[in-house]
Amino acid sequence: MGRLSIKEISNAGLIAAAYTVLALAFLPISFGVYQVRIAEALTVLPFLTRAAVPGLFVGVLLANIFGGMGWVDIVVGPLITLVAAILTRQARLIPTGKMSLTIAILPPILMWLGGAYLLTGAQVTLRTVLGAVLSILVIAILSPMISKASFEDQPGSRLNLLKGGSVLLLVLAAWLMNTATGIYFIVLGGVLMLATLATYVMLLNSLKGGFSTNILIAPLPPVLLNAFGVSIYLAPILGFNYWFSVQMIGLGQLIACYLIGLTLLKLLGKREIFI
What we know:
single chain; 2 domains; 10 helices
Protein backbone atom coordinates (compact mmCIF):
# COMPACT_ATOMS: atom_id res chain seq x y z
CA MET A 1 0.00 0.00 0.00
CA GLY A 2 2.98 2.29 0.41
CA ARG A 3 3.96 4.71 3.15
CA LEU A 4 1.20 6.99 4.44
CA SER A 5 1.67 10.75 4.44
CA ILE A 6 1.28 12.86 7.60
CA LYS A 7 -2.22 13.89 6.51
CA GLU A 8 -3.21 10.27 5.86
CA ILE A 9 -1.92 9.25 9.29
CA SER A 10 -4.02 12.05 10.81
CA ASN A 11 -7.07 10.90 8.85
CA ALA A 12 -6.47 7.33 9.99
CA GLY A 13 -6.41 8.51 13.61
CA LEU A 14 -9.63 10.47 13.16
CA ILE A 15 -11.38 7.48 11.57
CA ALA A 16 -10.18 5.18 14.37
CA ALA A 17 -11.43 7.62 17.00
CA ALA A 18 -14.77 8.12 15.23
CA TYR A 19 -15.33 4.37 14.95
CA THR A 20 -14.53 3.77 18.61
CA VAL A 21 -16.75 6.63 19.81
CA LEU A 22 -19.71 5.52 17.65
CA ALA A 23 -19.39 1.89 18.75
CA LEU A 24 -19.31 2.82 22.44
CA ALA A 25 -21.95 5.55 22.14
CA PHE A 26 -24.37 2.92 20.77
CA LEU A 27 -23.01 0.17 23.01
CA PRO A 28 -26.33 -1.73 23.52
CA ILE A 29 -26.68 -2.38 19.76
CA SER A 30 -22.97 -2.59 18.85
CA PHE A 31 -22.16 -6.05 20.19
CA GLY A 32 -23.70 -9.51 20.25
CA VAL A 33 -25.79 -11.33 17.67
CA TYR A 34 -28.63 -8.79 17.68
CA GLN A 35 -26.63 -5.79 16.55
CA VAL A 36 -26.71 -2.80 14.25
CA ARG A 37 -23.26 -1.35 14.82
CA ILE A 38 -23.65 2.23 13.57
CA ALA A 39 -19.86 2.58 13.48
CA GLU A 40 -19.79 0.03 10.65
CA ALA A 41 -21.07 2.78 8.35
CA LEU A 42 -17.45 4.00 8.33
CA THR A 43 -16.24 0.74 6.76
CA VAL A 44 -17.07 2.17 3.31
CA LEU A 45 -14.42 4.89 3.69
CA PRO A 46 -11.54 2.85 2.18
CA PHE A 47 -13.34 3.48 -1.12
CA LEU A 48 -12.30 7.14 -0.71
CA THR A 49 -8.99 6.93 1.12
CA ARG A 50 -6.40 4.29 1.94
CA ALA A 51 -5.98 5.93 5.36
CA ALA A 52 -9.26 4.29 6.37
CA VAL A 53 -7.70 0.81 6.14
CA PRO A 54 -5.43 1.11 9.23
CA GLY A 55 -7.90 3.55 10.82
CA LEU A 56 -10.71 1.00 10.82
CA PHE A 57 -8.41 -1.75 12.08
CA VAL A 58 -7.39 0.33 15.10
CA GLY A 59 -10.96 1.55 15.66
CA VAL A 60 -12.40 -1.98 15.77
CA LEU A 61 -9.55 -3.12 18.03
CA LEU A 62 -10.24 -0.34 20.55
CA ALA A 63 -14.02 -0.81 20.39
CA ASN A 64 -13.85 -4.59 20.86
CA ILE A 65 -11.63 -4.23 23.93
CA PHE A 66 -14.62 -2.66 25.64
CA GLY A 67 -17.20 -4.91 23.99
CA GLY A 68 -17.06 -7.76 26.48
CA MET A 69 -17.02 -10.54 23.85
CA GLY A 70 -13.62 -11.84 24.92
CA TRP A 71 -10.12 -12.06 23.49
CA VAL A 72 -11.23 -13.80 20.27
CA ASP A 73 -13.33 -10.78 19.32
CA ILE A 74 -10.43 -8.47 20.20
CA VAL A 75 -7.98 -10.39 17.99
CA VAL A 76 -10.06 -11.82 15.14
CA GLY A 77 -12.62 -9.00 14.78
CA PRO A 78 -10.07 -6.34 13.75
CA LEU A 79 -8.39 -8.77 11.34
CA ILE A 80 -11.71 -9.43 9.59
CA THR A 81 -12.26 -5.67 9.35
CA LEU A 82 -8.75 -5.22 7.92
CA VAL A 83 -9.36 -7.75 5.14
CA ALA A 84 -12.77 -6.20 4.41
CA ALA A 85 -11.22 -2.72 4.25
CA ILE A 86 -8.58 -3.86 1.77
CA LEU A 87 -11.27 -5.43 -0.43
CA THR A 88 -13.43 -2.30 -0.23
CA ARG A 89 -10.41 -0.29 -1.35
CA GLN A 90 -10.09 -2.56 -4.39
CA ALA A 91 -13.77 -2.02 -5.29
CA ARG A 92 -12.71 1.25 -6.95
CA LEU A 93 -11.06 -0.81 -9.69
CA ILE A 94 -14.19 -2.77 -10.64
CA PRO A 95 -15.75 -1.47 -13.87
CA THR A 96 -18.98 0.46 -13.43
CA GLY A 97 -22.22 -0.73 -14.97
CA LYS A 98 -24.22 -3.94 -14.82
CA MET A 99 -21.40 -5.95 -13.25
CA SER A 100 -21.27 -3.60 -10.26
CA LEU A 101 -25.04 -3.75 -9.80
CA THR A 102 -25.04 -7.54 -10.04
CA ILE A 103 -22.32 -7.89 -7.39
CA ALA A 104 -23.92 -5.29 -5.14
CA ILE A 105 -27.20 -7.17 -4.94
CA LEU A 106 -25.53 -10.28 -3.43
CA PRO A 107 -26.01 -9.41 0.29
CA PRO A 108 -29.81 -9.13 0.28
CA ILE A 109 -30.07 -12.30 -1.82
CA LEU A 110 -27.85 -14.20 0.63
CA MET A 111 -29.85 -12.89 3.60
CA TRP A 112 -33.03 -13.96 1.83
CA LEU A 113 -31.70 -17.48 1.17
CA GLY A 114 -30.44 -17.73 4.76
CA GLY A 115 -33.84 -16.82 6.13
CA ALA A 116 -35.52 -19.38 3.89
CA TYR A 117 -33.08 -22.02 5.14
CA LEU A 118 -33.79 -21.18 8.78
CA LEU A 119 -37.57 -21.21 8.38
CA THR A 120 -37.82 -24.36 6.27
CA GLY A 121 -34.93 -26.43 7.57
CA ALA A 122 -33.76 -26.71 3.95
CA GLN A 123 -36.87 -28.77 3.10
CA VAL A 124 -38.25 -28.14 -0.38
CA THR A 125 -42.05 -28.25 -0.53
CA LEU A 126 -44.68 -27.13 -3.01
CA ARG A 127 -45.17 -23.97 -0.93
CA THR A 128 -41.49 -23.06 -1.07
CA VAL A 129 -41.34 -23.64 -4.83
CA LEU A 130 -44.46 -21.54 -5.45
CA GLY A 131 -43.12 -18.79 -3.19
CA ALA A 132 -39.76 -18.76 -4.97
CA VAL A 133 -41.43 -18.65 -8.39
CA LEU A 134 -43.58 -15.73 -7.23
CA SER A 135 -40.49 -13.86 -6.03
CA ILE A 136 -38.59 -14.45 -9.27
CA LEU A 137 -41.54 -13.25 -11.33
CA VAL A 138 -41.89 -10.03 -9.29
CA ILE A 139 -38.15 -9.31 -9.47
CA ALA A 140 -38.09 -10.07 -13.22
CA ILE A 141 -40.91 -7.59 -13.77
CA LEU A 142 -39.36 -4.87 -11.60
CA SER A 143 -35.73 -5.20 -12.75
CA PRO A 144 -36.05 -3.71 -16.28
CA MET A 145 -38.15 -0.83 -14.94
CA ILE A 146 -35.60 -0.11 -12.21
CA SER A 147 -32.63 -0.28 -14.62
CA LYS A 148 -34.31 2.05 -17.10
CA ALA A 149 -35.47 4.62 -14.55
CA SER A 150 -32.19 4.62 -12.62
CA PHE A 151 -29.94 5.58 -15.51
CA GLU A 152 -32.07 7.78 -17.71
CA ASP A 153 -32.31 11.53 -17.15
CA GLN A 154 -36.08 11.46 -17.34
CA PRO A 155 -37.74 12.62 -14.09
CA GLY A 156 -41.13 11.45 -15.36
CA SER A 157 -39.80 7.91 -15.80
CA ARG A 158 -38.52 7.83 -12.23
CA LEU A 159 -41.71 9.33 -10.90
CA ASN A 160 -43.86 6.75 -12.69
CA LEU A 161 -41.66 3.93 -11.40
CA LEU A 162 -41.83 5.21 -7.84
CA LYS A 163 -45.61 5.46 -8.06
CA GLY A 164 -46.03 2.01 -9.58
CA GLY A 165 -43.46 0.48 -7.26
CA SER A 166 -45.08 2.03 -4.21
CA VAL A 167 -48.48 0.61 -5.15
CA LEU A 168 -46.99 -2.83 -5.76
CA LEU A 169 -45.10 -2.78 -2.45
CA LEU A 170 -48.24 -1.74 -0.59
CA VAL A 171 -50.21 -4.59 -2.17
CA LEU A 172 -47.46 -7.09 -1.32
CA ALA A 173 -47.14 -5.77 2.22
CA ALA A 174 -50.90 -5.96 2.79
CA TRP A 175 -51.03 -9.51 1.45
CA LEU A 176 -47.98 -10.44 3.54
CA MET A 177 -49.44 -9.14 6.80
CA ASN A 178 -52.82 -10.82 6.25
CA THR A 179 -52.01 -14.22 4.80
CA ALA A 180 -48.29 -14.96 4.70
CA THR A 181 -46.57 -17.25 7.17
CA GLY A 182 -43.34 -19.22 7.20
CA ILE A 183 -41.64 -19.39 3.82
CA TYR A 184 -44.03 -16.87 2.26
CA PHE A 185 -42.93 -14.33 4.86
CA ILE A 186 -39.26 -14.67 4.06
CA VAL A 187 -39.82 -14.93 0.29
CA LEU A 188 -41.87 -11.76 0.10
CA GLY A 189 -39.55 -10.19 2.64
CA GLY A 190 -36.73 -10.82 0.17
CA VAL A 191 -38.69 -9.19 -2.61
CA LEU A 192 -39.41 -6.15 -0.44
CA MET A 193 -35.73 -5.95 0.56
CA LEU A 194 -34.59 -6.02 -3.07
CA ALA A 195 -37.19 -3.47 -4.09
CA THR A 196 -36.18 -1.21 -1.22
CA LEU A 197 -32.51 -1.42 -2.24
CA ALA A 198 -33.42 -0.65 -5.84
CA THR A 199 -35.47 2.37 -4.78
CA TYR A 200 -32.54 3.56 -2.66
CA VAL A 201 -30.22 3.23 -5.68
CA MET A 202 -32.58 5.44 -7.68
CA LEU A 203 -32.65 8.04 -4.93
CA LEU A 204 -28.84 8.08 -4.82
CA ASN A 205 -28.72 8.51 -8.55
CA SER A 206 -31.22 11.37 -8.39
CA LEU A 207 -28.83 13.40 -6.23
CA LYS A 208 -26.71 15.98 -8.00
CA GLY A 209 -23.99 14.36 -10.06
CA GLY A 210 -25.42 10.86 -9.92
CA PHE A 211 -22.98 8.12 -8.84
CA SER A 212 -20.68 5.43 -10.20
CA THR A 213 -22.20 1.99 -9.80
CA ASN A 214 -19.02 0.49 -8.34
CA ILE A 215 -19.70 2.56 -5.23
CA LEU A 216 -22.42 0.01 -4.49
CA ILE A 217 -19.76 -2.66 -3.96
CA ALA A 218 -17.97 -0.68 -1.24
CA PRO A 219 -20.20 -2.01 1.59
CA LEU A 220 -20.14 -5.59 0.31
CA PRO A 221 -16.91 -6.88 1.97
CA PRO A 222 -17.77 -5.69 5.53
CA VAL A 223 -21.31 -7.08 5.20
CA LEU A 224 -20.27 -10.55 4.04
CA LEU A 225 -17.08 -10.96 6.08
CA ASN A 226 -18.71 -9.85 9.32
CA ALA A 227 -21.87 -11.89 8.78
CA PHE A 228 -20.08 -15.13 7.90
CA GLY A 229 -16.73 -14.54 9.66
CA VAL A 230 -17.68 -13.03 13.02
CA SER A 231 -20.46 -15.61 13.40
CA ILE A 232 -17.89 -18.42 13.41
CA TYR A 233 -16.68 -17.45 16.88
CA LEU A 234 -19.56 -15.32 18.17
CA ALA A 235 -22.31 -17.93 17.70
CA PRO A 236 -20.71 -20.58 19.98
CA ILE A 237 -19.70 -17.95 22.54
CA LEU A 238 -23.29 -16.74 22.88
CA GLY A 239 -24.93 -20.12 22.28
CA PHE A 240 -26.66 -19.37 18.98
CA ASN A 241 -27.06 -21.39 15.80
CA TYR A 242 -24.40 -20.36 13.28
CA TRP A 243 -26.81 -19.61 10.44
CA PHE A 244 -29.10 -17.65 12.73
CA SER A 245 -26.10 -15.56 13.79
CA VAL A 246 -25.15 -15.01 10.13
CA GLN A 247 -28.68 -13.81 9.43
CA MET A 248 -28.87 -11.40 12.37
CA ILE A 249 -25.37 -9.91 12.03
CA GLY A 250 -25.82 -9.70 8.25
CA LEU A 251 -29.08 -7.80 8.61
CA GLY A 252 -27.44 -5.31 10.99
CA GLN A 253 -24.54 -4.89 8.57
CA LEU A 254 -26.90 -4.25 5.67
CA ILE A 255 -28.52 -1.41 7.61
CA ALA A 256 -25.25 0.12 8.79
CA CYS A 257 -23.13 -0.31 5.66
CA TYR A 258 -25.69 0.18 2.91
CA LEU A 259 -28.36 2.54 4.22
CA ILE A 260 -26.07 4.68 6.38
CA GLY A 261 -22.66 3.96 4.83
CA LEU A 262 -23.62 4.54 1.20
CA THR A 263 -25.30 7.82 2.11
CA LEU A 264 -22.14 8.89 3.93
CA LEU A 265 -20.01 7.85 0.97
CA LYS A 266 -22.18 9.81 -1.42
CA LEU A 267 -22.03 12.94 0.74
CA LEU A 268 -18.27 12.79 1.28
CA GLY A 269 -17.36 11.75 -2.25
CA LYS A 270 -17.70 15.25 -3.75
CA ARG A 271 -16.10 17.17 -0.88
CA GLU A 272 -12.47 16.04 -1.33
CA ILE A 273 -12.05 15.79 2.45
CA PHE A 274 -9.42 13.07 2.32
CA ILE A 275 -7.27 14.45 -0.50
